[in-house]
Amino acid sequence: MSDQNNQQDLLVVDQIHTFIGQFHILESVSLSVAKGSITVMLGRNGAGKTTTLKSILGLTPPREGKIIFDGMEIQGKRAFNIANLGIGYVPEHRAIFRALSVLENLKLAERKKGDFDRNADFIFNLFPDLKRLYKLPGNHLSGGQQQMLAVARALVPDNKLLLIDEPSEGLAPILIQQMMEAIRVLSEKTTILLVEQNFIMASQLALNYTIIDDGKSVQSGLMADLVNDPELIHHYLGASIKTRKELEMNHESQD
Amino acid sequence: MNPRTKKILTLAISVVVVIGVIFALYLYAGKEPFIRTTLSGLTLGSLFFLVAAGLTLIFGLMDVLNFAHGSMFMLGAYMGWQLYTNPTFIFGLLPTILAFACGVMLTTVMKPYLIRWQISEKWQNALPKIAYALALFAAIVGFLGLDILGLAKTAMVAMTTSTAGNPLSEISSQEPLSVYWYRPLLMLISGLLVAFAVSKPGDKTEFAPKEKVLPKLVIPLVLLILTIVSTLIRESAPETLLLMNGNWRFLIAILLAVASGFLFGAITEMTLIRPLYVRSFFIVLLTLGLSYVIRELVQLLWDPLAYQMSRPPLFAQSGKAANLLDWLRNGYSTIDISGVTFPTYRLFVIFLGIVMFIFLILLMTKTRLGMIIRAGVQDPQMVEALGINVKKVFTVVFAMGVGMAALGGIGAGPFLPIQPQMGDQYLMQGFITVVIGGMGSYVGAFVGALILGMARAFGDYFALKLSLSPALAEASTVIIMIIVLLVRPQGLFGKKE
Ligand SMILES: Nc1ncnc2c1ncn2[C@@H]1O[C@H](COP(=O)(O)OP(=O)(O)OP(=O)(O)O)[C@@H](O)[C@H]1O
Ligand SMILES: [Mg+2]
Question: 3-state class of A198 per DSSP?
C-alpha cells in the first residue's frame, strides 16, 4: 500500500470478492485512490480490471469486502445510487448509445437539469470534434470519436471520481496523444482511476499505480518507483512492456 | 453495393410493391368495396397496433414476452364497460384501492428511518415476512364484508335485464356508510404494513438519504383525501355518472381503463416479473399463467358470458352523416366516405390508433424517458451507471404497454362482445405484428399492424367473394409472417443481432 494517509483517499477498496455467476472473478482486490490525482490500474488481459471498476460501481456487486467512497460505505448499494454520489464511468469498448445522437448521449448523462449547459464549453474545448458532430447518431461516429464521446459523457455532471477503462484502446497514435492530454486536463478537476494497457501513457499520467493479477491485488505504490523496476513490470504485465531505457527515451522525446 | 444505395433501393422497391398491390386490389375489387375493406383493415390494424406497441416496447427494453397482454386488453374492456354501464362496482372498490395505495406510498417516508434501525439480522429477515402476513390478514378482513361478487352480480343483472329500461333502476343500494368506513381503514393499515416490509427495516445495504419529509407526504395525502371523498360519494357518484352525457362518460371510461391498465401493469412488474429478470424463461411461464388467472377471476366476477356495450351517443344516432362535421354535430352511427357507408365508431378506433402512434413518436424522440428507453434497449447497465434508476424505467414501460393494451380493449368494447377470451385473438395477432415489424420497434409495430389489418380485411373480402373458407383470412397473417421471416429474419424494422 502507498504511504499516503487515509484522509486523502477518495476511494478505498478493501479486499473485495466478486462473483460472476459461479465464477470467483475477484479474489481479494484492494486499492486506494488518492484525492486529486490519477491512479492507474495495471494488469494482464483478463486480470479483473474491468470487473474491479464494475464492482466499485455496483454493476457487479462484490459479495465480500468493503468499498468506501468519500467516507461512505457503498458496497451493496444499487448502481444508480452509487453513480449519483458523484462517480462517472467510461466503459471499455466505447459503450456509447448508438441509437442516440451525440447531443442525446450527453443529455442523457445529466443528473440535474442544466448539467450539460453548465459544462458544455469545457467539454467542447476538450473535444472540439464533438461540437461539429453533435447532431449525428452515435453509430455514425468513428472509433476515436466514440471514445471521446464516452469520456465526454462522464463529464456532463460534476463528478468527484472518474473510472476510465482503457481509453486508448484501438486508437491511432495521434488520437492517443489527444486523449492523454484530455485526461491530464481532467485530472486537474477530478480524481481519476484509470485502467490503461499502454504503459507509456500510464506512466506519464499517473501518480500512483496498483497491479492486479489473476483477480488479486499484488502490488501498489508510486508510479515513479515502478518505472525504475523493469523486472516487476515484466513479471506482471508481460513482455510487451518496454524497458526503462526505452521509456526514458520516450519521456525525453515528449518533453 | 454500398449500404446507402442498397437502403434506397430496398425502400424504392418496397414503395413500388406496396403501390402495385394497392392498385391491383383497387382494380380487382372496385372502388366501393376497396374503400370499405381498407377502412375495415385500418380499424383492425389500429387495434393490433395498440396491442403490439406495448408488446414490442416491453420486449425491446426488457426481453420479456408478455403472454398476459391479451388478458390485460380484456381487462381494459371490462373496466371501461363497467364504468360506462354500471359504475357501482367500481365506486365500491375505489376507496379500498386508494386507501391501500396511500399506505404503500408512505414507503418513501418510512424507508430512510427504517433502514437505519439497529436490529439483528434475524429480525431483518423476519420482520418483512411478518408484515406481509399481517398485511394479507388486514386485507382479507377488510374485504370479507365487502361483497365483491354480489356487487359484480348486480352489475351483470343490470346488463342483462335493463336493455329495455333505465340502468339506474338496477343499481342496488349498499350497506350504510358507517359500516363502510372500516374497509378503507383496514386497507390503509394493510398498505402501511406492505410499505414497512418493502422498506427492509435494518438493512444497511439499502440506500435512502434522509430528505425533507414534507414533499414526500404530498402524494399519500392526496390519496388519503381521495379515499375519504370516494367513500363519501360512493353511492351518489354512480347515479351522477349515469345521468351525465354519455360521451363524457365514455371518455371517463377510457381514462379509467387506461389508468387501471397502467396500475395493474406497474403492480405486475414490481411484484411478479421483477424477481425473474435473470431467468427470462420463467417469465414466459409466469405471464402465461397470469393470463389464465386473470381470465378465471373475470369469469368469477362477471360469469363467463358475453356482454354487449352500447355505443356512446356520438356514435349511436341512427342515420348517415354527410361529412365529418355533420357527424360531430349530430352524432350519427354511420358516415358517408366517398360513397361508402362506414360506421363512425370504427373511424374513432382508427383515430385512437393514429393518436397513440403520434404519442409514441413524440415520447420516444422528444422526451427524456424516450431517450432512456432507446438507450436502455442497447445497454441497460450503462444507463444505470449514468445514475438512472433502470428498474423504475422498466416498471413505467411495462405499465405503459399494459395501459395501451387496456386502451385497445375499451376501444374495441363497443363493437366486440365483451367476454373473457376476447383478448386471445388480439394477443396472437399482436405477436405476429411484432415479429413482422421487428422486435422492439414501435414503427415496425405500426407498419406491421397496418399490413396485418389489411390482410385480414381483404382476406375476409376475398373469402366471401370467391366463396372460400374464412379461415383463409386468418391464415394470411401467418403466411405474411413466414414470408417476412424468410426475407428479413429480423423483421421489417428490426435490427440485426
Ligand atoms: N460475464 C462473465 N462470465 C464469466 N466470466 C467473465 C465474465 N466477465 C468477465 N469474466 C472473466 O473475468 C475475468 C476478468 O475479466 P475482466 O474483464 O475484468 O478483465 P480485464 O482485466 O478488464 O481484461 P482486459 O484487459 O482484457 O479488458 C476474465 O478471466 C474473464 O474471462
Ligand atoms: Mg477490461
Answer: coil
At residue B148, does pLDDT exceed 70? no
Average pLDDT over residues B469-481: 84
Name the domain count of chain B. 1
CA distance linking residue B424 with residue B418, whole number of Å: 12
Q: Which whole number is the average pLDDT over B413-421? A: 90
CB-based contact, B325 to chain A, within 8 Å: no
Residue in the block written with cell 492523454: A180
Is B100 inside any structural domain?
yes
Does A53 reach chain B within 8 Å, measured CB to CB? no
User: Does the domain made of A3-86+161-172+192-254 have the CATH classification 3.40.50.300?
Assistant: yes
| Pairing label, strands A191-195, A208-213 | unpaired
Give the C-alpha separation, A253 to A247, whole Å.
Answer: 10
Q: Which domain holds residue B470?
A: 31-314+339-487
Residue at B321 is within a domain: no
Question: What ipTM goes with this model?
Answer: 0.86
Atom in ligand 1 nearest the alpha carbon of residue A54: 18
Q: Which residues contact B17 (CB under 8 A, 6 or more apart)?
A: none
In degrees, rounded to 5, the angle at the alpha carbon of residue B240 between the alpha carbons of residues B235 and B244 is 160
Query: Inter-chain contact B374–A153, Cβ cutoff 8 Å?
Result: no
Q: Lowest-pLDDT range, A55-59, B43-47, B137-141?
A: B137-141
Contact (CB, 8 A) for B247 and B115: no
B332, part of any domain: no
Q: Higher confidence at residue A229 or residue B383?
A: B383
Mean per-residue pLDDT, B46-65: 92
Residue B236 belongs to some domain of the structure: yes
